[in-house]
């Protein structure tokens, strides 16, 4: 592979505020109509400040960090995340991928998403070469 490997400890953070527009796009793409995600009154009656951000839409921000960290010659081979709590639309997220190990066969990364400074998503990913 001609591309340089990222060093262990290298990290990329992608920041984004999750808006009502993103909720609508994700609903349209997935067909997910779960009430806490699409019904503001229901979400508030459940004790949330607003509709809950779709967990997979939020964790999808990590794919941007992974792509920027590994580069165009790599794709996701494994991706695993855990969610500690719901968070409302309008939240500002910081999605970080950090290299834990890198070789020509795979780039292993730890994953973290902070919402207003609170870690709400953790996980790991393995990037593999795009070409088989």
Walkthrough of the structure:
This protein has 132 residues and is an alpha+beta fold. The protein has a single domain (11-129), classed as Hotdog Thioesterase (Thiol Ester Dehydrase, Chain A, Roll), CATH 3.10.129.10. Helix content is 28%, strand content 37%. Strands 1-3-4-5-2 form a five-stranded antiparallel β-sheet, covered by helices on one side.
Characteristics:
single chain, about 130 residues, alpha+beta, Thiol Ester Dehydrase, Chain A, 5 strands, elongated, HotDog_dom_sf, Acyl dehydratase
- How many separate helices? 4
CA-to-CA gap between the ends?
Answer: 12 Å
Average predicted local confidence, pLDDT: 94
CATH first level? Alpha Beta
What is the helical fraction, as a range of percent? 25-40%
Q: CATH homologous superfamily, by name? A: Hotdog Thioesterase
Broad shape:
elongated
pLDDT below 50 for ≥5 consecutive residues: which ranges?
none
Radius of gyration: 16 Å
- Strand line-up in the sheet with most strands: 1-3-4-5-2
Strand segment tally: 5
Portion of residues in beta strands equals 35-45%
Kindly give the count of domains. Answer: 1
CATH fold annotation: Thiol Ester Dehydrase, Chain A
- Biggest sheet descriptor: 5 strands, antiparallel
How do the SSEs run, as a string of H and E?
Answer: EHHHHEEEE
Please identify, by name, the CATH architecture. Roll
Based on secondary structure, the structural category is: alpha+beta
């Amino acid at each position: 592979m001609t591309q340089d490997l990222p060093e262990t400890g290298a990290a990329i953070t992608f920041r984004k505020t999750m808006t009502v527009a993103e909720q609508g796009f994700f609903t349209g793409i997935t067909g997910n109509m779960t009430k806490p995600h699409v019904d503001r009154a229901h979400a508030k009656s459940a004790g949330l400040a607003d509709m809950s951000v779709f967990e997979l839409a939020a964790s999808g921000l990590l794919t941007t960090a992974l792509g920027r960290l590994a580069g165009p010659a790599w794709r996701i081979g494994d991706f695993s995340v855990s969610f500690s709590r719901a968070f409302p639309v309008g939240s500002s997220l910081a999605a970080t991928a950090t290299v834990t190990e890198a070789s020509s066969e795979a780039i292993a990364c730890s994953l973290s998403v902070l919402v207003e400074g609170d870690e709400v998503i953790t996980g790991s990913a393995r990037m593999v070469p795009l070409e088989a």
